Task: inverse folding
């Protein structure tokens, strides 16, 4: 899970990835006392606008003039074949990396460039990583409440309430005392989601959420994400190679191919696309979708 205050710049120091993966970074409420607490209903959706984004690694030009609009409050999935740049794009949105050129605007505030230094940004975001990034030495409840306790966001009694509430949101009531080693892959994913929800994000991002899950666990996770969205007002961005999953959970879908967004639309529009590359990706025998 990735947690940080957007008002602080990304710090390129040793071990920073470990810290952000577990929420061990600055307080997102710098003007509030340690006895303050997150308002669990205080979320708002944020829009994302990406303009002419480019990113290369050596001679490998991964993202090529990417343009994309993600509407505030929607669930938007980015699909595409392996190596097409999906996860790289997600990491740029959360500033885990920097583009070679182009810009990302979140709530019309630039993320990179000179203008980003002076822009006011007060949204909160979290990220659920493919690996779940749970601490094996901690219980389920301790993992979910880690950031709240580390940043002294609110008093202990309220932290325990938040842990119970967030676990209930993902269908894991009464699991606070379990160790992560006792969990299935699908349960670990849901614990990671609960932990990401603990800071009440305005934007939540998922990197390959169904990776290493069987079809039944993937269905359970899809329903969990839909349920979470019904009880929050945030914007959800999902990177996935799992087309069926994307078609089920998304309001809109964008397909990336060879470093470019080649089509966006509703699930129905993507299935009805006349683009030969999109159709080739959608209508394969292994996906069980007939043309």
Result:
């Amino acid at each position: 899970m990735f947690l940080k205050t957007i008002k602080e710049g990304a710090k390129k120091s040793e071990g920073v990835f470990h810290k952000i993966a577990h929420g061990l970074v600055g307080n997102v409420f710098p003007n509030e006392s340690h006895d303050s607490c997150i308002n669990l209903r205080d979320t708002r959706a944020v829009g994302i606008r990406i303009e002419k984004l480019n990113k290369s690694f050596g001679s490998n030009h991964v993202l090529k003039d990417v343009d994309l609009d993600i509407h505030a409050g929607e669930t938007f999935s980015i699909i595409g074949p392996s190596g097409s740049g999906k996860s790289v794009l997600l990491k740029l949105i959360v500033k885990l990396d920097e583009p070679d050129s182009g810009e990302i605007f979140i709530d019309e505030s630039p993320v990179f460039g000179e203008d980003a230094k002076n822009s006011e940004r007060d949204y909160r975001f979290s990220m659920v990583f493919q690996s779940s990034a749970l601490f094996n030495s901690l219980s389920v409840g301790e993992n979910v409440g880690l950031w709240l306790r580390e940043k002294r966001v609110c008093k202990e009694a309220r932290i325990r309430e938040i842990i119970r509430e967030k676990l209930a949101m993902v269908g894991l009531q009464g699991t606070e005392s379990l160790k992560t080693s006792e969990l299935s892959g699908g349960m670990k994913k849901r614990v990671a989601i609960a932990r990401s929800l603990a800071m009440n994000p305005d934007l939540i991002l998922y990197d390959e959420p169904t990776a290493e899950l069987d079809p039944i666990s993937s269905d359970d996770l899809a329903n969990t994400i839909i349920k979470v969205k019904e009880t929050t007002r945030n914007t959800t961005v999902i990177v996935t190679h799992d087309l069926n999953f994307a078609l089920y959970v998304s309001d809109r879908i964008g397909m990336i191919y060879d470093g470019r967004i080649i089509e966006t639309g509703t699930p129905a529009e993507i299935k009805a696309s006349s683009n030969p590359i999109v159709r080739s990706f959608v209508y394969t025998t292994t996906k069980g979708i007939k043309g």
The chain has one domain: 2-287.
